[in-house]
Design goal:
The complex is a heterodimer of chains A (327) and B (394). Chain A is α/β, with parallel strands linked by helices and 327 residues long. Chain A is built from twelve helices and eight strands. Chain A has one domain: 3-Layer(aba) Sandwich (Rossmann fold), CATH 3.40.50. Chain A is globular. In chain B, helix 13 links the parallel strand 15 and strand 16. Classes of the chains: A alpha/beta (327), B alpha/beta (394).
């Protein structure tokens, strides 16, 4: 605990260089505060690494290592193997952006999960390469303006869909995966705590708005991320062993336009014929997600029993209860 | 006790005696037998180690990086395409000053794809900040693995043991793998000062800027330069404990009063020694020098060993395309800096597993005695009409 604040660990302490309103700084502060300093943190290259470790200064009050962009999950595998070799159960946490998760880091992440390493991988998803100046990633949603998916005479922004990362993760049938966002702290906290109670590979995708890249008011980070959920564009999910075991239901669905109007990255869609068609397309995508996950149904009965039957045991395996430890 | 062992098996047993807690492995010919033997040792309970079968060499290098940063001794091995896939991480390991030890089972680099041995893979990584030790025999490979952990952990620098693929990795030779107690006495437990530990939190791998990056790089260079003495000392200490001596940084044969000296690296030294014997038998004063340690480059040792000779020929299994032989170029610079004017002729050969035969090596010696040439020459080119000499001017 930090002596100045008995209720906080301050693993990520003040003095770092994040932009005002940075969703990733907020998310990382929340996540690492819940996990605490008795863990080893591995960071991929990206904004979080850059703004927290500048020139012989560090904002981290926990053991922290950064190697290169693509290998955070593999470095974590090595850290975990070293700890396992000496019977040390210090938690191992990876923090990466969407580039380090969806794109360049995907192979190492998939390998880490497949081998059953006892690691929590946290992706702070801000839907583009923000550190290098807002270039599109495979996490960037359809039709969004970035510097490498610019709208122009022949284009309405990014041509491709946002990669469905949580489904790729789900296909690994790992013990626990969830999506969360900075707008719902109690939900994020519950998911981090649940993840920390489980042994084996775990994954958390935290939508983290970027005022610079999304071109929204720095004071509206929370509002923007709440609208991503309320429109159905970013469903809040929990998955166990590949099966959906929980969703955050919506009291009512908000139109995607409400979300887009707060952000400059969608601005080009308003006022052009092609743009209006793109908005309709994105609305249809949101509707499909709402339907897929039953976000407006109040009686969804998720079959958690089936999911929990798929436990793996033995060396390199994992069980639901962290306390049980592996054999 | 001397046993008839395959090179890969011998190396695996040496690694086992060094007690790595983490082994990361991704298969690539001709390195595979090393990691297969280690996997079997772990499966049989003969090696208490976490064996991490990764999805790429990039991940293998990253796993040993993470393991060593967490205070564990670790091992990996690779070659060729795999080594190049590791490149980004290998530079990073060196910059983080992590004492990782790996074996490179030297293999040619594609295209065209070729699984056989030359030194282009490890030579391409000469600027990565790794100590590179090239071995001549399987016995030396075994002993160098044991020395490498001492060197790495003393200097906080990574060490790459370069052994010729197939020529060594797949060849059976009589080898004495030291007893566990003897290795334990030579190689103390690993204690890493910058371990990732919640009790003493540290930030590793943070950002730097123009006002201090150069100082980090300078410190890395200084550490590498100072490592030369440690490599020498550890070799001496090893000789005292185990009775075998590899000369530390350089090894030589019949150098006394040699007028022509052939400089090379790796397993071809065995054949070179035979040629030296044969030429000496014919009354020619020739000798040979083997560069055991290529990084740090032992410039002063080389100059001291070679300054009384008249002609030097370098025969190497790698080159810088469009430039020259790599060792030849560096050796010329070392001699020039020391004010020693001895012509150094550059021969490239043995690429992609091509045999460097006794007659070819003899041809190289003979060509060196003729008119000096400023260009590098390829020894043993055969895709040419039969009437063209085997040593071809480029």
């Amino acid at each position: 605990m930090d002596s100045r604040d008995p209720f906080r660990h301050n693993v990520l302490t003040s003095g770092h260089r994040a932009c005002s309103g940075c969703g990733e700084a907020m998310a990382a502060r929340m996540v690492t505060d819940i996990i605490g300093p008795d863990a080893i943190y591995i960071n991929a290259t990206g904004c979080l690494q850059v703004f927290t470790t500048h020139n012989q200064q560090s904002s981290w009050q926990a053991p922290w290592i950064h190697s290169v962009f693509a290998n955070a999950a593999a470095v974590a595998s090595g850290v975990e193997a070293a700890l396992r070799a000496r019977g040390d159960d210090t938690p191992v946490i990876v923090q990466a952006g969407d580039g380090g998760t969806f794109d360049i880091g995907l192979q190492c992440l998939s390998g880490m999960i497949e081998r059953g390493h006892d690691v929590l991988f946290v992706c702070y998803d801000n839907e583009a390469y923000m550190n290098t100046g807002v270039q599109r990633s495979s996490s960037t949603p359809h039709a969004v303006r970035t510097t490498t998916s610019p709208p122009g005479r022949l284009s309405e922004g990014k041509h491709h869909l946002k990669k469905d990362m949580i489904s790729i993760i789900a296909a690994h049938q790992m013990p626990y995966a969830a999506t969360a966002t900075v707008a719902y702290f109690p939900d994020l906290k519950a998911k981090v705590e649940k993840a920390m109670s489980i042994k084996g590979p775990r994954f958390l995708q935290v939508l983290s708005p970027c005022p610079l890249g999304w071109d929204h008011d720095a004071a509206q980070t929370i509002q923007v991320s709440r609208l991503a959920v309320e429109t159905g564009l970013f469903p809040l999910l929990e998955l166990e062993h590949g099966a959906v075991t929980g969703v955050m239901h919506l009291a009512q669905q908000r139109p995607v336009e409400d979300y887009f109007r707060l952000q400059g990255r969608f601005k080009h869609l308003f006022g052009s014929k092609g743009g209006i068609a793109e908005i309709r397309h994105l609305q249809a995508l949101a509707d499909a997600r709402i339907q897929r996950y039953g976000l407006l149904d109040t009686t969804t009965d998720w079959n958690t029993d089936t999911a929990s039957q798929v436990q793996r045991h033995g060396r390199g395996g994992y069980s639901l209860d962290r306390q049980e430890d592996s054999q | 006790m001397r046993q008839q062992l395959e090179g890969s098996r011998a190396v695996a047993e040496a690694v086992q005696r060094c007690r790595p807690q983490v082994v990361a492995a991704y298969p690539i010919t001709p390195q595979t037998h090393i990691i297969e033997h280690l996997a079997q040792m772990v499966a049989d309970g003969e090696l208490a180690s976490e064996f991490v079968s990764v999805e790429s060499e990039f991940a293998a290098a990253s796993v040993v990086l993470g393991a060593v940063a967490t205070g564990s001794r670790a091992f990996t091995a690779s070659a060729s395409q795999g080594l190049l896939l590791m490149t980004e991480v290998l530079f990073n390991i060196a910059g983080l000053r992590l004492p990782v030890v790996m074996v490179c089972a030297n293999r040619a680099v594609g295209a065209p794809i070729n699984i056989f041995s030359d030194h282009q893979d490890s030579m391409a990584l000469r600027d990565a900040g790794w100590i590179q030790l090239y071995v001549e025999s399987n016995q030396e490979a075994v002993d160098t693995v044991i020395q490498a952990y001492r060197i790495a952990e003393t200097c906080e620098l990574p060490v790459m043991i370069c052994m010729d693929g197939f020529f060594l990795t797949h060849t059976f030779e009589p080898v004495d793998v030291p007893e566990q107690e003897a290795v334990d006495a030579f190689l103390p437990d690993f204690h890493f000062a910058r371990t990732l530990d919640p009790a003493q939190p540290m930030t590793l791998g943070g950002g730097s800027e123009p006002d201090n990056y150069q100082e980090y790089r300078h410190a890395q260079h200084q550490a590498m330069v100072s490592a030369a003495d440690e490599i020498d000392n550890i070799n001496t200490e090893f000789t005292q404990s185990f009775g075998r001596d590899y000369g530390g940084l350089i090894d030589h044969y019949q150098l006394e009063e040699a007028e022509v000296v052939l400089v090379t690296l790796g397993s071809v030294m065995g054949a070179v020694k035979d040629v030296v014997d044969s030429l000496r038998g014919q009354g020619q004063s020739v000798g040979a020098l083997r560069l055991r340690c290529f990084r740090p480059f032992p410039a002063t040792h080389l100059v001291a060993a070679l300054r009384n000779t008249r002609r030097i020929v370098v025969l190497e299994k790698a080159f810088s395309v469009g430039a020259d032989g790599i060792v030849a170029t560096e050796l010329r610079a070392a001699l020039h800096n020391a004010g020693v004017a001895i012509p150094v002729e550059s021969f490239i050969g043995g690429l992609g597993g091509r045999d460097l035969t006794l007659s070819l090596i003899e041809e190289v010696f003979r060509a060196a005695s003729a008119e000096p040439s400023a260009n590098c020459r390829f020894a043993g080119l055969n895709s040419l009409p039969d009437d063209i000499p085997i040593i071809e001017e480029t």
